[in-house]
Amino acid sequence: QVQLLESGGGLVQAGGSLRLSCAPSGRAFDNYAVGWFRQAPGKEREFVSAISRSTGSRSTGSTYYAGSVKGRFTISRDKAKNTVHLQMNSLKPEDTAVYYCAADTSLTGFGVADFASWGQGTQVTVSS
After folding, report:
1. CB atoms within 10 A of CB 77
2. What is the pLDDT of residue 95?
3. Can you give the chain as a three-state secondary structure string?
4. Nearest C-alpha neighbor of 15 from the set 73, 89, 81
5. 100-116 tens-digit pLDDT
6. Which positions ≥6 away from 11 have C-beta within 8 Å?
């Protein structure tokens, strides 16, 4: 497992943007598939986006999105900074949740059980 640290959450008005970041402690993130999940009060944790592990010096991985965020959110891997970002645009009140970064050595699925390592979460609140 790898220790993960998320940052970038906060309060934003509907239509606004936020960028979340996830960095590992003491590991090369290129060797990990990284996912973002979110959990709203009273709801189950749900998949948001994922990026597969980097397969070469020029590869940042393949990207995947939940239907509810496709076209609004972008996941990316910053190899130089050993960080994965989730750029969230056109935010809606229904995007309000605690967002979690997760990682695993390979991308085998988009469920909670498919990721071995988890961050502590960062709160995103979108006001209407």
Report:
1. 22
2. 98
3. CCCEEEECCEEEECCCCEEEEEEECCCCHHHCEEEEEEECCCCCCEEEEEECCCCCCCCCCCEEECCCCECCEEEEEECCCCEEEEEECCCCHHHCEEEEEEEECCCCCCCHHHCCEECCCEEEEEEC
4. 89
5. 999 999 999 999 999 99
6. 125, 126, 127
